[in-house]
Amino acid sequence: MLLGTVLVLLLLGGGPASAHAALRSADPADGSVVKTAPDAITLTFTESVGLLDDSFRVFDPDNRRVDTGEAGHADGRADTARIKLPGKLGTGTFTVAWRVVSADSHPIAGAFTFSVGTPSATPPALPSTSVENPATGGLFNIGRYLAYLAAALLIGTAAFIAVCRPPDVRPLRRLLLAGWWALAGSTVFLLLLRAPYETGTGPVQALDPSGLTRTLGTRPGLALVARLVLLAAAAALLLWQRKALREGKPPSRAALLTGAALAVGLALTWAGAEHASAGIQVPAAMTSTVLHLLAMAVWLGGLAALLTLFYRASVPSRVVGRFSQLAGLSVTVLVVTGVYQSWRGLGSVSALTDTTYGRVLLAKLAAVTLLLLAGARSRRTVTSERTARNVTVEAAEVREARVPEPVGGRAEGAVDGLAGDRVDGTVDAPVSGPSLPEKPRPPAGTALTPAEDAQRRALRRSVLAEVVVSVVVLVFTTVLTGTLPGRAAAEAATAEQSAGLPVASVTNIPFTIGSGAPGVRGVSGKVQVTLDPGRVGDNGLQAVVYGPDGGFVSIPELRISFSLPDQDIGPLDAKVTDRGGYWAADTVNLPLSGTWEMKVTVRVSETDQVSESKPVEIVR
């Protein structure tokens, strides 16, 4: 049902914006050739981004770092990043490496080149644009997974105690404490690793106080601090209810309301700093994420609590029945919110298989399907056990009407520690008569019939299977939170294509002269022709001749002409002139769009020359 509903929504289409920032445009553009050095470099993204101390690194043609100003937002717009360049930048090909943090807390990075005057003879290699350090990224993902698991234990166990009201909650105290300590520890761990995770440095940088100071001024850092404050309040609530937990009493109404408010607040610390906080329909997305996280915690944490009671205490049927209803409600919330979040993150049907986010989502859906099957099996076991117990109770009532009541002692079905409570939650009727010496109490398991014992074992196995699969679901959930959503991946690809279109059309034409004559050594090289802007109308033209070693070559004559065979136009002589190291023409008019044939004639001596042609696409 979940997968089918997602596909229907995807077929309906969606808005263009999404979580995870993508580079929309760059000024100067990637691969462009500009006549004069720009005053600044400006990047525009699909959503707001946060800047780092080292968001821009600019390298000159000799691969030396260029001194630049401090990075900032252009015109106060949060979706831009700008850095000032020095006045005397020089000519050649420059490299720009950039790194920012998107609004959903994930770092993104990239690199591009642009040329001033003429491109360099040997274009510099692009620097590494790895988004994260492998060790730091791995540790950060482990911390996020532990945080999800701890939240499920803490919130789910508390909800199980409040709603299902088991008679003996002492075995669950350890789960509550384990969840609290694990969530507090993972939050501190993530807070320390946040700075090296954003900058892509090693884990050792987590000890740098300046990085922690910068993290505390960002939205993800503030969300982690808020989580610690809420955990402190949760600790105070647990201390307030410590006596009630020891005595097995249900929590008060004030404690229930306070706990519910703290659970919502904890869920908001995730929703306010990750995918839901950026993209389309942010209020609806954050509400959906909070409900999704709470439903996940109630279901998975409740499973852990139920499994703990199965192995450490006796579980009345009424407790299992209440949790079955609670789990059913949680599953409904998970399906509704999961459908919405899947549609919001994917954006198209093809994204299910064409993007990493879609493939991980399919794997999570498969795991959730197994979890639902295990839950359905548990539910059938509970239903059959209730039916069998009702038949047993009716038969016992018939026997009580015909058989004299034994005198003295406890009822044989009583369970140790529950003061006469049977495993099914019923209480034995009081008996009268003189007291007899109490016989040794049989183990709790012997009070069940063979059929009931088999059903209980089956229920324990199915709940254990649910817990195991739920761990896998949490792993996929953690991976999804750190994966570029399908909708954003498609937008990033579109933005990359539009941002990567060069302002100038650059064409390389190789040539060889004299290699066919016996005993004559050939001369080879290439001519790099730049048309700016490479569109219909007037274009500036620059041409550089390179030798076989990639160095500049001076030649006595270079001629360039253009023809459009489809329209029987040309040849049009570009009338290039030697400008001292390169050849150029201020204006070359190409009146129509289409595939033009550019013919280049290279003369290296009085008698040696060669002509080569290559197609050039001219657009409107």
From TrEMBL:
<keyword id="KW-0812">Transmembrane</keyword>
<keyword id="KW-1003">Cell membrane</keyword>
<keyword id="KW-0574">Periplasm</keyword>
<dbReference type="InterPro" id="IPR032694">
    <property type="entry name" value="CopC/D"/>
</dbReference>
<dbReference type="GO" id="GO:0042597">
    <property type="term" value="C:periplasmic space"/>
</dbReference>
<feature type="transmembrane region" description="Helical">
    <location>
        <begin position="221"/>
        <end position="240"/>
    </location>
</feature>
<dbReference type="InterPro" id="IPR014756">
    <property type="entry name" value="Ig_E-set"/>
</dbReference>
<feature type="transmembrane region" description="Helical">
    <location>
        <begin position="175"/>
        <end position="193"/>
    </location>
</feature>
<dbReference type="InterPro" id="IPR008457">
    <property type="entry name" value="Cu-R_CopD_dom"/>
</dbReference>
<feature type="transmembrane region" description="Helical">
    <location>
        <begin position="145"/>
        <end position="163"/>
    </location>
</feature>
<dbReference type="Pfam" id="PF05425">
    <property type="entry name" value="CopD"/>
</dbReference>
<feature type="region of interest" description="Disordered">
    <location>
        <begin position="402"/>
        <end position="453"/>
    </location>
</feature>
<comment type="similarity">
    <text>Belongs to the CopC family.</text>
</comment>
<keyword id="KW-0732">Signal</keyword>
<feature type="transmembrane region" description="Helical">
    <location>
        <begin position="463"/>
        <end position="484"/>
    </location>
</feature>
<keyword id="KW-0479">Metal-binding</keyword>
<feature type="domain" description="CopC">
    <location>
        <begin position="20"/>
        <end position="116"/>
    </location>
</feature>
<keyword id="KW-1133">Transmembrane helix</keyword>
<dbReference type="GO" id="GO:0005886">
    <property type="term" value="C:plasma membrane"/>
</dbReference>
<feature type="transmembrane region" description="Helical">
    <location>
        <begin position="252"/>
        <end position="271"/>
    </location>
</feature>
<feature type="transmembrane region" description="Helical">
    <location>
        <begin position="323"/>
        <end position="343"/>
    </location>
</feature>
<feature type="transmembrane region" description="Helical">
    <location>
        <begin position="355"/>
        <end position="376"/>
    </location>
</feature>
<dbReference type="GO" id="GO:0005507">
    <property type="term" value="F:copper ion binding"/>
</dbReference>
<feature type="transmembrane region" description="Helical">
    <location>
        <begin position="291"/>
        <end position="311"/>
    </location>
</feature>
<feature type="domain" description="Copper resistance protein D">
    <location>
        <begin position="318"/>
        <end position="389"/>
    </location>
</feature>
<feature type="signal peptide">
    <location>
        <begin position="1"/>
        <end position="21"/>
    </location>
</feature>
<dbReference type="GO" id="GO:0006825">
    <property type="term" value="P:copper ion transport"/>
</dbReference>
<keyword id="KW-0186">Copper</keyword>
<protein>
    <recommendedName>
        <fullName>Protein YobA</fullName>
    </recommendedName>
</protein>
<dbReference type="GO" id="GO:0046688">
    <property type="term" value="P:response to copper ion"/>
</dbReference>
<dbReference type="Pfam" id="PF04234">
    <property type="entry name" value="CopC"/>
</dbReference>
<keyword id="KW-0472">Membrane</keyword>
<dbReference type="InterPro" id="IPR014755">
    <property type="entry name" value="Cu-Rt/internalin_Ig-like"/>
</dbReference>
<dbReference type="InterPro" id="IPR007348">
    <property type="entry name" value="CopC_dom"/>
</dbReference>
